[in-house]
Amino acid sequence: MATESTSLRLDAEAKKQAYAVFKAVGLKPTQAINLFLRQVALRRGLPFDVKIPNAETLEAMKELESGGGRHYKNSEEMYKDLDI
Predict the structure, then answer these.
(1) What are the domain boundaries of the chain?
(2) Number of neighbouring beta carbons within 10 Å of residue 41
(3) How far apart are CA 20 and CA 54, in angstroms?
């Protein structure tokens, strides 16, 4: 397999979080990035769904960003509130 050097500008916080996940699953960052690239090539697209949020979802996201919405300590509390 031929390799080449690449320079990328990454979001610092996203990189920190992703690298922690790579370490937890025993992958070096280079291995994880190569895995992603191979999956893109194999699937001829992204290996996950990318969706544009609808109007209702966008409104809910805005509500949460402004401090609104319901917040729960755990899933049991949420289910109790939903009467499930």
Answers:
(1) 12-43
(2) 9
(3) 32
pTM: 0.60
Taking a C-beta distance cutoff of 8 angstroms, is the pair 75, 84 a contact?
Answer: no
Locate 44 and state its tokens: 């001829």
pLDDT one digit per residue (tens) for the chain, 84 residues: 899 999 999 999 999 999 999 999 999 999 999 999 999 999 999 999 988 999 999 999 999 999 998 888 999 999 999 987
Give which of 21, 47, 45 is closest to 32, Cα–Cα. 21
Structure tokens belonging to residue 67: 């401090």
| Pick from 13, 19, 47, 16: nearest CA to 31 | 19
Tell me whether residue 18 is exposed, middle or buried, using C-beta atoms within 10 angstroms of its C-beta: 0 to 12, 13 to 18, 19 or more. middle
User: How many C-alpha atoms does 81 have within 13 Å on its Cβ side?
Assistant: 9
